[in-house]
Design brief:
nine-stranded mixed sheet; 2 helices; 511 residues; seven-stranded mixed sheet; disordered N terminus; flat; mainly beta
């Protein structure tokens, strides 16, 4: 064995050299019968090129959480700065990971992620993303930086804690012709948009940038400054019930050369407000009584520039003994101009007519964005008023079900067995069952409703109950019942009583 080992090592060495001819020098002479003895470690090193394959080298592991891109929207208000930070993130591991995203000096208002398990925590002076589910998702944080930003020139330092591959910063100053700069910006563009100044920039590689904005100075000549102007278009809808009036109104504001966060809607004092919605989102609303009326004070979550929308729902009790019904048309306070439309609908047992109107012109109901309108009006001056005459008529009771056709077929056998098939074509609104006063001694063989088998039951009064479909009186349903009775055996002559079941639903025709 000791003699074979050196020979085997020599053969393997020669094979290694033959498999890598580029490593053999051309001047090495051939030595037939020569034995080579080398250390084992050196022999292992010579075999290593044969074991390794292309691409087998271990690749360095990438980061567990990769921030592909980061987008920051910087809204410069006068009392605070709002920063909306959006991150496109890829998670490559299933273990929990902490990833710092935003500086803790900001106040976090909301957090959203494409993965429900993600959370954000305040640790180590940063808002950190706590995540473990692999995959790509978008994470968004809305933050506020309170302060006095009402000066002519303001600045704020924005810190980047994430290691994003790309970043983008948008700075919005809700004023026209503002001067905005972003330190260390690789590229930037500035534009005017709906009375706002918007800067789009790609920051450099530094960990923070400083945003500086200068407002346009107020000119001494008031005529040279664009005057703030707020107008609104209102769409109001009323639906008249016997004892109640339901209403809704949508206000679409056009805001020029200023910003608004608070809106005022005037309604009569006897009106109850059910709800208020808006865009931008509403943060609060309340009622304030004043001078026999009430003001709905609506506060948005942020300053609105260019456009805003507010909708309110309200109701008012009506006196059933009175025919005159004034409609509470809401109006906006503090606007330069208001125009709108009014639509009226009513329950089908009410007869309504226009009793009085002021500052309202007739409008074709086809121009209203709602079906079922009986009257339509438009106005361009305020206040607009409308009163109706309402006449109430009692509703007539109608059948909750009717049998259009009832048919009976009986077969009598010699031994007295009587087999009867009952067939009903009926329409039903609310009846849960068809009740039949079938003889308690009768043996029910089968029951079908629209060709589907059902199981009849009997109530405490002994009536047979067959379940019925409900809710579509214009649709006919077929009910079939087959039962067996024992009668006296047949003779050459005689009479046999035919006690057919009687339904509890009115029948139009029997065959």
């Amino acid at each position: 064995m000791k003699k074979i080992a050196p020979c085997l090592a020599a053969v393997l060495c020669l094979l290694a050299l033959w498999s890598a001819p580029e490593r053999v020098h051309a001047d090495i002479p051939k030595l037939p019968g020569t034995r080579i003895t080398i250390p084992w470690e050196q022999f292992q090193e010579m075999l290593r090129p044969l074991r390794e394959q292309p691409g087998d080298a271990a690749k360095p592991a990438g980061p567990a959480v990769s921030v592909e891109s980061a987008d920051y929207e910087f809204f410069a208000g006068r009392e605070q700065v709002k920063i909306t930070a959006s991150f496109n993130i890829t998670v490559t591991t299933g273990a929990w990971q902490f990833t710092p995203l935003v500086d803790s000096s900001l106040t976090l208002a909301s957090f959203a992620s494409g993965d429900a398990e993600d959370t954000v925590r305040l640790e180590d002076d940063a808002y950190q993303l706590f995540t473990k589910t692999p995959g790509a998702r978008t994470v968004q944080l809305v933050l506020y930086a309170p302060g006095d930003f009402n000066r002519m020139e303001n600045s704020y330092a924005l810190h980047f804690l994430e290691q994003a591959n790309t970043r983008h910063v948008t700075v919005i100053v809700p004023e026209a012709n503002a001067d905005i700069t972003l330190d260390d910006a690789a590229e930037s563009t500035i534009m005017q948009e709906n009375g706002r100044t918007v800067l789009n920039a790609v920051p450099g590689a530094s960990a923070s940038v400083r945003v500086t904005w200068k407002r346009t100075p107020v000119l001494d000549n008031a005529a040279a400054k664009p005057q703030p102007r707020v107008t609104t278009v209102v769409s109001t809808w009323f639906h008249v019930l016997e004892n109640e009036l339901l209403g809704s109104a949508s206000f679409n504001f056009d805001i020029r050369n200023t910003t608004l966060r608070t809106f005022k809607i005037i309604l009569p004092a006897e009106v109850s407000v059910d709800g208020v919605t808006g865009a931008p989102q509403i943060s609060d609303w309340k009622l304030k009584p004043e001078n026999g009326a009430q003001t709905v004070l609506i506060t948005l979550g942020e300053e609105a520039a260019g456009a805003a929308a507010v909708s309110i729902r309200f109701k008012k009790d009506l006196d059933a003994q009175q025919t005159r019904a004034p409609l509470p048309i809401p109006h906006a306070r503090g606007v330069d101009r208001e125009s709108g439309t009014v639509g009226v609908s009513a329950e089908d047992n009410l007869d309504i007519s226009v009793a009085a109107r002021d500052n309202l012109a007739p409008l074709d109901v086809s121009e209203l964005d709602a079906p079922g309108a009986l009257f339509g009006f438009k106005y361009s001056q305020t206040p607009a008023s409308l009163s109706l005459d309402v006449h109430r008529y009692p509703r007539q009771e109608t059948l909750d079900a009717i049998i259009d056709l009832a048919g009976y077929t009986s077969v009598m056998l010699e031994d007295g067995k009587l087999l009867t098939m009952c067939s009903y074509m009926l329409r039903n609104n609310t009846r849960p069952h068809l009740r039949l006063d079938l003889d308690a001694r009768a043996e029910v063989w089968s029951a079908f409703v629209d060709n589907r088998p059902v199981k009849p039951t009997r109530n405490k009064d002994g009536l047979l109950l067959i379940p019925l479909p409900r809710g579509a009186s214009q649709v006919s349903h077929r009910v079939e019942l087959l039962y067996l009775q024992q009668k006296p055996a047949m003779k050459f002559r005689g009479r046999i009583p035919m006690d057919l079941p009687s339904p509890d639903i009115q029948t139009a025709l029997v065959m």
